[in-house]
User: Fold these one by one.
Assistant:
Number 1:
Amino acid sequence: MRMLITVLFLTNLCFAEGCAAANATEEKVTVPSSAEDSKCEPIKVKPVDEVLAKLNESAKKIKTYQADIIHLSRQPLFESQTLRTGRIYYQRLPGQSLLRVDFNTLKQDDQPAEKYIEQFYFDGVWLTRIDFQLKEVKRYQLVDPNDIDAEKGVDAFDLISEHLPVVGFTGTDKLKKEFDITLIEPNQTSPANCAHLRMGVKADSKFKDDWEHIDCWVAKKQYLPVKMATYTTEDEIYELEFIEPKVNEPIDKSIFAPKVPEGFVLAEEKPLKKR
């Protein structure tokens, strides 16, 4: 499950002493009401805060999302890497969100790419994994239905981010206590027309035992992530890239219903109380 999933950030606008605080997702600043207040000049928003505010605004507008994905897992110490390709689908509904991730090919080191199909479905409560090579199904309950807010539900990206880093799709208001976020200058290897955010894991973060930092590239057109690279405490690197994303275009809900081929067996099913 380590190749599947994630989180993002915070945003803050600070003003000089005596000025009213502004919400980080707004671009307005307080204007002095008289000449006597002219000494109270608003501090300019830092570039990283501008990126986070726009990212936060875009993330909250997502109703559907779909894109081709490229997932690269690297182990530099062993000079080994695994490349997988597939597609991701996401839909946010009242009181529920749905997620599907398909992997279709696998390429190990210098070997030719081969067909290798795995499908992951999350329906708000259960995560279902279908392995077409082993012809088996595994199901894991991730949420207690009694704990779900009837109006808000459980966001699939939010939940998955507790296990694996797919960041930037649920807003930026939850990571202030987990990450130090900075804006990195682009270089020759950076994706074009993107802002590069680096999220360093804080010493007291709940992710401190798993991750060192996450690099996230945000497209300046849609202000959503197009690529991320996670550096783990075990000297592994996981890269995830989103190709030609489509935002808020219709998705048939049947896409999110697992379709188990005939002859596949249920190899494992773990309710939450047994995990």
Note: Residues 95 and 153 are 4 Å apart (CA to CA).
Number 2:
Amino acid sequence: MSASPDIREQLAGFAGIAAGLMEMLRLAKEALNRQKTEGLDKLTQVQKAVVAEMSLHSGELDKELCEVRGDGQVLCLKMESVLTHLQLVARNIGEMVPPIRQQIAEGIPFSLKGTAQANQVFDGLAEILGDLETIFRSDNEELKQQVLKEKGPKVSQQTIDFATDHEARMIEGLCLPHAAPVFLGLLDAVRNATRHAMEVARLAQRHAPN
């Protein structure tokens, strides 16, 4: 059964938010790889714009919630939940700014493997955020399942595996101890953002479980 036009319209309105989140993540990755802080300042600006857009949507949903009953209220509450998780994704990506800024300012080196792993999970999260934008625009049920059952769990597991690898490199003397808070902070941010992105995909399902 197809989703109702109301659901499609609500989800389509969030596509710009997903694009903004992708831009935030792109700027974080670029700052890390180029070791330049300018992108972090831009990231903060984009975050403010994304948060403002989400606030507008939330206000509209609050107003609509007061005017509808039954299924309309259920839809509004579900969309509010989607916005909440998108807000948390934005917060998680924003939390990458301090560790990256610290790493650049203090010249804290990552190993080649650590840099590659950071880029790998950044790319995995970027793909998921791109999928959310597509989901919002097309209501693609297959893509929702891919995010929930394949892509999301894969990135989440990678963040755990790479944290374990980092500890092993520290023991072997291949990584400096003061790189640990920065590297692990980035992995935590990616893992948390991925978890909330998966919740967005779950809530966007046509027959999402309660």
Note: Helices lie at 5-12, 15-34, 38-65, 71-94, 97-105, 112-138, 141-171, 180-203.
Number 3:
Amino acid sequence: MTNLPAYAPLSERVAALTDEDDLTITPADFPDTLEDRTPFGGLVIDTGFARHMGWAGGPEKPFEVMDRSLGFEGFAEAEGFRRLGLWMLHAVFSGRDWAGLTLTHPTSRAQAFYVDIQRPMLRTHNLTLAEPPRYASYEYSPQEVWRHPFASADMAPVHRVDEEDRPFFAFGWSSPDANDLWNVAKADQIILEATPDGLAAMACVLMDMAHPVLGREEINFEPPIVGFAATQPRSLEARFWRPGSLAFYCDTLDELVLPPMR
């Protein structure tokens, strides 16, 4: 069900790159406009992920400190991840502050995926720009993907993103009545908040994940303290899976069955 057909020609060029190639991507490679919401059937999101942790216990203590890290899991085939990454780059170039995907695959528990772009506002003494800066190009070169691609520099062999540019993932609820309840089972939106550099880095790691040689079947973005410090504090965890992996055990999205909500 992969769509986002406007990105198909550019995706073909990206797919053909080796780790010795690079590609200059410019706004001219994308449609002139980016809609508020674009239909996309190539991504399935399960909002039921939670990781449980315990420490400070043991036989010498009568207690154990427990914690739980909430998150989501995203499933896509290789071409779906490439086009999702290109859509994110389109958002960076577009000048928009936000953009969304309507997730049309019937298996997806989230119905929308949004990016919220935290664009820097350049200031001088008593002067403020009328508009945020626009970007002219991005130099993309495929890199090998580590399981925790945005982890701290001392934890990851490849540096992809600075600390201030790490992503922040959040749940959203399309119904105003559900916002105050914070019921994860009814969360139907995922929001990715990042700077332009952070969103471009996210786009690249998803495209790299799809690479036939450099890619991998699973990547994780864990918050500080409870994980590999790949997101902003208080962010949800995010895990992305390709076919043939532990969680994406089949070959296509149409064969995927999500486990019951926990």
Note: Helices lie at 8-15, 78-94, 196-209.
Number 4:
Amino acid sequence: MISLEGRDITTAYLSSTYAVDTAISSDNKELAIAEINYSGSIIQSSIKIISVEKAQTDSKNAVIYTHNADSKSIITNIYYQDNNTLMCMFDNNIIKRISETVTEETKFDSDTIFADINLNGYTVEIKKKATGLFSSEAQVEIKQVNTGKINLYKTELLPKSMETYENVIALNLGTEVHFIHTNGWLIKKYTSTRDIKDVVVCGNLAGIIYKDKIELVNL
């Protein structure tokens, strides 16, 4: 861990686990590390939180919280949202930690296509919903973390991929990209004559990535 001045604050050594993701709280007081232990017969995921203040004076006792997940869960992503709420995404659910309280936010099922936690105060889950015997649509469920309120957005096409940034969700539908606000409203629809490989979002700009070029779009 390095300070803004370039000073080495502390180093965390993982003896038998692999770090898959890290996150720093908005007040810079906590460092969260998502770890996976492959050494045993059962894969074990865990989340370790280090106090930045303690790490500078007593690194051996800097770990202030540890959460060991169920053996059937594999951690994929962690992210600090508003008010230092730590969101943790596994392959089968999303949990949140506020202070010392851990609760399950979302549980995935067989209809879940994509999910993400890298938003300001929201999580997003895309589900495949049948609309007929041989037809289906994508239902985007945007859940407010503090209240549990869900905003919905639907598309007739199933997305190839999803990207998120702050309050924007980008759905890559192949030759279309739908940019959605976390309130469930469509910000912009981008249509192309070519297959879109990927999308990136940053601030008020989005990058439409093709096989041989990138186009920038204002949001």
Note: The first strand starts at residue 18 and ends at 24.
